[in-house]
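Async update (no meeting this week)

Hi team, since we skipped the sync, here's where things stand on the single-chain job. The sequence we agreed to prioritize is pasted below, unchanged from the tracker. I ran it this morning and attached the output directly underneath so nobody has to dig for it. Comments welcome in thread, and please keep replies under the output.
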Amino acid sequence: MSLIKQEDRGFQPPAGMNFSTEDILSLKMLSRTLCKIASFLQNDLHASQLVGYEDWWQHDGLHFRKAACDIHDLFAIVQTPRSLIEAMPGDELVYIGIAPPDALWYLRFYSSWDDEGLELTGLFDLTLPADMAVQFRASVIPELECTILEQDALEYFKEIIL
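Output:
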């Protein structure tokens, strides 16, 4: 059984390990964290050409290809809290997704106002193949200022895709 609805068979979640935030982050911390992740991803040969998505999996189960992009575009989106919030599609639980054309890895992030409407917050998850997951675990996670959860990607996506 496929996790993806028939109308969006063009993108399948990658296999491997999924890393996600345990808690919702301040937008400032999310921006700093995503900059570190983008720095890690720029070392991957797959990062020269990327694809941006509107990821509606947690909203209504859909997933839309948005535009071709590159690592510089990713940095432009995540470099500041303002650029992050301005890049958001605007609908509840609609994430920005970034992946190489072969979907070897997949980065998703979301930001919005907190429930009280007082602070901008956000979260992310990153799915990596096993070899990249080892490198990420060793070189990036110790540098992050947030707690990271780790689980099998297939199990993670089964939980979140409506």
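Quick observations from my side:
Residues 4-8 have pLDDT under 50 and may be disordered.
Residues 14-160 form one domain.
Reply here if anything looks off.
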